[in-house]
Structure formats: structure tokens, C-alpha cells
């Protein structure tokens, strides 16, 4: 049985630690949305980001944000004349927006990649495909991330 | 234990067939955004790049960010053009480097 | 009255009041999304793969005076079915698979015991348990094991911690409902050691139970303690007949 003194010391420690870390910015939601927009701009430049051709397959209700399986497929013949050059995956609520950037080409045969991402919080995940003709296409999915019920609190 | 990676390549394919390649690397992918219980920042330590070459020609490359889950899985496709060797290379922070190769017979 | 009820349950193999009826038991696998299930099912992309490879290497490596393979040969043959029977009574004491592996190391290999939750012990346990994947869990409820099983059941039904909840209240009475957005599983111990996405790594049943106890704001039982092994026994008995899934993936 934990003694009262031990319990208060533990509770005090648990409260002090977050205070020692950087406080979460009260404007964090806005800042991360802006960061995502900036990241998209970095990928797309001045070109128009169109919707379509891309399918982002990701569970809408995520079992655990630490490892979210996702697959991006792009409708493209993947010939030398018409193919997908790159697929970018970004997300809204992470500390930084980039997940993965895959560089393909006609030798890929198909434009399909899979990975497992870390999605920090409920929000949008966006897959952007850069085509050989310089156009950009995207698919955005809103996902819900829940916190695990029973954790360790660092006491493995 | 040494840098572990596993690749899954079909041992044979028909010429022109699109094959799926699955790769898995053993790596914690420490994001650089976590803190210890006493508030210190745990520095970033991730795999940053993955490249696949088919008989010496690069056919796939990926840049990884901290948002890739631990023990990164990357699955992609390529056209089976000729028999030979597929070479896979992972590089990352703190001099991390891993390599694997697989043979394929194309008929 | 209680003893009669317990004997009745053991003899007819049916569940007692409060227990989930045997036919209604479900693995945590069923509560997961299609994508997470695919992670577990695909041997080439299951994140526990590296742990299995490490386990195989350790199995064949000379530790102390000899390797596991030195006595047991090919694990696929010699270890088939073993994990389905643990925890069990050996040498007058209830032990789990980790403790059995350590006993072998110390007594037969003359090698030091591996620490609980160490990478090496998890790797070996996972590798051994993997050889029983797909087999029904078959822990004994014989006379020597009975007292431990009863103790385990008592622990399972005991209210704990600041939240003052017992395992049974969530996992027998409220499974399938949501707890803060996540579905409450029945907590069938069918896939241990597991790759838990929350841990971003592998862990034993005892580690998972400690997570639960910390979640209840209770002092968690120590690794390898009699309470832990009795609880493990009860959980494995509760899952008797269900297929072993090691190495499972769980959120």
C-alpha cells in the first residue's frame, strides 16, 4: 500500500514535470493548421492543388495513434509520358506536418505505397500526388484518434 | 543487436508484371518531440531515407519524417523488368545505416 | 456453497455467474480495426517479426554451457503446445513460461536468469509461444493447480486501487462498451507476448496487467510475484479452448 506521504510526493512530481516542460501554446490548433498550409505550399509551390485521382486509405477511427496503417493509391497509367513522380503524406495535428515523401516514376508500374504513420490527434490527413505533367492532386481524410485506456505513466 | 531489416520480394515474376515489395526496419524512430519524466527533451533519432535500386538503377526513394511509426514499414511496387538483384538501403540520424538485397528471376 | 459452485464449473466446463459464457468469448482481435488485424495477420509485416528473429537467434546461441537447441532441437517440434499449458505447477510451485525459461537457463544451461521484460526474455518467450500459434489454450485445472486457480480468480474479482474496480467489472460485465472512445475488450490473454501499439514495442501479459493496475491507481503487483502468476493462470484458464495468437498486435 502506498503511504500518504509517498502518494503526495508522486502526485507532486507528476504535476511538476509538465510545468518543467514547455507549456502547450494556447494557439496550438491555429499554429499547426498554418504549419500544414505552409508545408503543402512547400510541396505544391504556386500550382493549384486539385482534388481527385488520389485515394488515401486510412481507418477513420484509429485504434492507436502510434501506428496507423495507411495506403495511398493514385489513378495513373504509369507510363513514361504520364506517371506519378511523388506521393506526399501530411497531417494536421502533429508537431510537424510531414509524414512521408515517396519518389516514384514509370518503373513503379503502379502508384501505390503503404506505411504506418503516427497521428497525434483527431484531424486531417492529406495525401498529395505530383504528376509528371506538373499537376498536383490530393485526397484529405478526417480521422479520429483516441487515447489508450490503460497506460504505464513511465512505471514499466 | 545489429540493424535489422526484412524485405519481402517475390522470388520470381513474369516480365512486365507489377510486383509488390514490403520492407520492414527495426528502429524506434524517436521523434525528438518527447520529454523524459523530468522534462528533458529526448533527441530525435530516426531513419531519414530509404532507397531501392534494381540492378543498379534507383526505382524508389522515400524520405521519412518523425511521423513514421516505429519499426517503419514501407510497401511499394515496381515492374519486373529483368532477372537480377534488388538492393535496399536505409540511412538515418546518428550514422544509422542498414542494407539488404534480394534476388528475382524474371521469365 | 462457493466450493460446490467452483467444482460444478470445473466438472461441466460451463461458466459461473459473472463469467462470460464460454461460447460468447471473443479475442481482443475482434475489437480491432481491419488494418490493425492485417498487421497481426501478415507474417512479413507484423512488427513482432524482429523479436521473433531475436528469439530464434537466442534459441540457437550457446548460453552458459549450451543452447536451448542443444537439448530441445528444432523449436517448431519440441515447443509445439508448450505455451498453451502455462502457467503450470512444477516442483510444487506455480510458474509461468518466463519463469520456466529462466529455470532452464539457470539449472540446465548454467546461464544467468534473464530480467523480466528484458529484450532477451521477451524474445525467447515470444519465440517459444509462437510455436503454439493456432493451438487451443489448455492450462490444467487439476488438484495441484486448483488452489492457485482459486487464488487467481479471487484476485480477478477483487476491487483495487483508487478507482476501486475489479478486473471482472470491466472485462466480464462491461466488455464491448466504450471507455473513453476505446472499446473494452474481454481481456482474453490469447496473444502474449504482444506488440502493443501504445508501447511501440513488445511486452508480456504481466506488463499489460501492470498497465491496468496503474490505470486503476493501484500499486501494481511486482513482476513474477505469486499474485501475478496466479492472475495469469486464471486468465489463461478463462481463455481455455481459445486459439493462441502469439505474437498478437494490440492497440
Report on this model:
- With 156 residues, chain A is α+β, with helices and mostly antiparallel strands.
- Chain A is built from 2 helices and 9 strands; from the N terminus they run ααβββββββββ.
- In chain A, a hairpin with a 6-residue loop joins strand 5 and strand 6 (98-103).
- The longest helix of chain A is centred in the first third of the chain and has 17 residues, at 4-20.
- Chain A is globular and about 55 Å long.
- Chain B is mostly beta strands.
- Chain B contains no helices and 8 strands.
- In chain B, the strands form 2 sheets. Chain B has a 5-stranded mixed beta sheet with strand order 2-8-7-4-5, with no helix packed on it.
- Helices cover 42% and strands 7% of the residues of chain C.
- With 251 residues, chain C is mostly helical.
- The chains are: A alpha+beta (156), B mainly beta (107), C mainly alpha (251).
- Chains in contact: A-B, A-C, B-C.
- The A-C interface holds A 1-2, 58-59, 61-64, 66-69, 116, 144, 146-153, 155-156 and C 32-36, 38-39, 47, 117, 179-182, 184, 197-200, 207-208, 210-212, 214-215, 219-220, 251.
- Strand 6 (98-103) of chain A pairs antiparallel with strand 5 (57-64) of chain B, so a sheet runs across the interface.
Considering the chains and any ligands shown, give keywords for the structure:
heterotrimer; A: 156 residues; alpha+beta; Immunoglobulin-like; six-stranded mixed sheet; three-stranded antiparallel sheet; 2 helices; 22% helix; globular; B: 107 residues; mainly beta; five-stranded mixed sheet; 0% helix; 52% strand
Q: Could you state the order of secondary-structure elements of chain B as H and E?
A: EEEEEEEE
User: Mean pLDDT of chain A, as a whole number?
Assistant: 86
CATH architecture of chain B: Sandwich
Q: Tell me, briefly, the overall form of chain B.
A: elongated
Q: Percent of residues of chain B in helical segments?
A: under 10%
CATH architecture of chain A: Sandwich
Runs of chain B with pLDDT <50, length 5+?
A: none
Give Rg of chain A in angstroms: 20 Å
Number of folding domains of chain A?
1
What radius of gyration of chain B results from the CA coordinates?
16 Å
- Multimeric state of these chains? heterotrimer
Amino acid at each position: 500500500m502506498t503511504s500518504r506521504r509517498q502518494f503526495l510526493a508522486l502526485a507532486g512530481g507528476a504535476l511538476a514535470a509538465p510545468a518543467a516542460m514547455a507549456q502547450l501554446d494556447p494557439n496550438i490548433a491555429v499554429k499547426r493548421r498554418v504549419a500544414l498550409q505552409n508545408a503543402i505550399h512547400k510541396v505544391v509551390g504556386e500550382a493549384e492543388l486539385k482534388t481527385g485521382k488520389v485515394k488515401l486509405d486510412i481507418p477513420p477511427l484509429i485504434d492507436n495513434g502510434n501506428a496507423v496503417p495507411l495506403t495511398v493509391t493514385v489513378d495513373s497509367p504509369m507510363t513514361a509520358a504520364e506517371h506519378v513522380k511523388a506521393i506526399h503524406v501530411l497531417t494536421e495535428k502533429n508537431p510537424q506536418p510531414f509524414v512521408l515523401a515517396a519518389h516514384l516514376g514509370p518503373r513503379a508500374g503502379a502508384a501505390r505505397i503503404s506505411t504506418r504513420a503516427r497521428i497525434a490527434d483527431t484531424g486531417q490527413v492529406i495525401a498529395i500526388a505530383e504528376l509528371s505533367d506538373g499537376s498536383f492532386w490530393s485526397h484529405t481524410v478526417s480521422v479520429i484518434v483516441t487515447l489508450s485506456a490503460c497506460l504505464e505513466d513511465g512505471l514499466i | 543487436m545489429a540493424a535489422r531489416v526484412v524485405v519481402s520480394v517475390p522470388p520470381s515474376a513474369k516480365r512486365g508484371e507489377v510486383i509488390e515489395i514490403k520492407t520492414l526496419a527495426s528502429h524506434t524512430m524517436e521523434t525528438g518531440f518527447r520529454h523524459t519524466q523530468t522534462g528533458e527533451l529526448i533527441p530525435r533519432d530516426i531513419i531519414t531515407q530509404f532507397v531501392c535500386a534494381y540492378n543498379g538503377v534507383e526505382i524508389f526513394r522515400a524520405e521519412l519524417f518523425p511521423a513514421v511509426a516505429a519499426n517503419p514499414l514501407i510497401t511499394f511496387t515496381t515492374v519486373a523488368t529483368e532477372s537480377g538483384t534488388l538492393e535496399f538501403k536505409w540511412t538515418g540520424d546518428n550514422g544509422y545505416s542498414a542494407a539488404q538485397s534480394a534476388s528475382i528471376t524474371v521469365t | 456453497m462457493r466450493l460446490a459452485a467452483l467444482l460444478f464449473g470445473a466438472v461441466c466446463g460451463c461458466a459461473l455467474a459473472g463469467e462470460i459464457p464460454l461460447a460468447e468469448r471473443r479475442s481482443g482481435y475482434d475489437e480491432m480495426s481491419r488494418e490493425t488485424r492485417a498487421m497481426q495477420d501478415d507474417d512479413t509485416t507484423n512488427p513482432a517479426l524482429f523479436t521473433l528473429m531475436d528469439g530464434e537467434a537466442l534459441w540457437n546461441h550457446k548460453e552458459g554451457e549450451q543452447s536451448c537447441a542443444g537439448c530441445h532441437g528444432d523449436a517448431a517440434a519440441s515447443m509445439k503446445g508448450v505455451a498453451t499449458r502455462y502457467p503450470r505447477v512444477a516442483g510444487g510451485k506455480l510458474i509461468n513460461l518466463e519463469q520456466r525459461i529462466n529455470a532452464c537457463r539457470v539449472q540446465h544451461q548454467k546461464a544467468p536468469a534473464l530480467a523480466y521484460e528484458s529484450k532477451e526474455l521477451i524474445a525467447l518467450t515470444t519465440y517459444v509461444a509462437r510455436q503454439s500459434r493456432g493451438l487451443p489454450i489448455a492450462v490444467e485445472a487439476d488438484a495441484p493447480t486448483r488452489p492457485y486457480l482459486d487464488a487467481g480468480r479471487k484476485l480477478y474479482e477483487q476491487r483495487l486501487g483508487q478507482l476501486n474496480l475489479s478486473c471482472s467489472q470491466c472485462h466480464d460485465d462491461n466488455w464491448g462498451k466504450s471507455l473513453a472512445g476505446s472499446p473494452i475488450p474481454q481481456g482474453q490473454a490469447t496473444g502474449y507476448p504482444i506488440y502493443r501499439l501504445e508501447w511501440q514495442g513488445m511486452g508480456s501479459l504481466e506488463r499489460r496487467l501492470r498497465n491496468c493496475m496503474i490505470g486503476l491507481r493501484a500499486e501494481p503487483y511486482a513482476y513474477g510475484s505469486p499474485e501475478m502468476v496466479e492472475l495469469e493462470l486464471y486468465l489463461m484458464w478463462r481463455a481455455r479452448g481459445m486459439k493462441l495468437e502469439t505474437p498478437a498486435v494490440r492497440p
